[in-house]
Amino acid sequence: AHNTDGYVYGYAPNGNTEGAMNQLVLFRVPTERILDRRAYEFFVAHHASGAAEWSPRIEERGVLHTFPAGWVNTTVHPYAWHPSVVYYPPLELYLMANWGMGCSPTGEWFGKPSYLGFWTAPQPWGPWTQVHEETAWTPANDPAARAYQPQIAPKWIAADGRSFWLVWTDFQEVADAGRPFYSFNVQKVEVLLD
Description:
The protein is an all-beta fold. It has one domain (about 5-190). About 0% of the residues lie in helices and about 45% in strands. The chain has no helices and twelve strands. The strands form three sheets. Strands 1, 2, 3, 4 and 5 form a five-stranded antiparallel beta sheet that branches. A hairpin with a 7-residue loop joins strand 8 (about 115-120) and strand 9.
């Protein structure tokens, strides 16, 4: 209902190593041509007017936004900075949640609590402004929490914009509770409006 330009937008990390994975890239495609690869366009750059430059060539893609360094693991398989972006109707802007892997000093994943950030933008291509940051994301003040992959549930955004529900998982074994890794969680997020 809120899509006014007829495009579907897709966000992704720009690679899978530190320095590339924390770079956000973007493509778009007309809704009616989503199965036609020739119709895809890749974000190249912002213009001073607020408009974006697009190219049909993936190798011409530009970096849409850069997330903080130091949150990409170097062992197992790299995994971080996979965003959740929604249109936030009460404020008429886009809201992004994203996370970085809490790495140990040797680069192993979940060696410490993860990073959580929220950003807003007037358009799907930005510019993105950070509105919240947690460098030790520990839901319920649980120091053992290894929360990741936050998703903003569009259906659970309050009509007045003062709260929404965040869906996330926790890579924490809770053996005595009979819960495995990857447990499903929801958390109400209160939004302070100026």
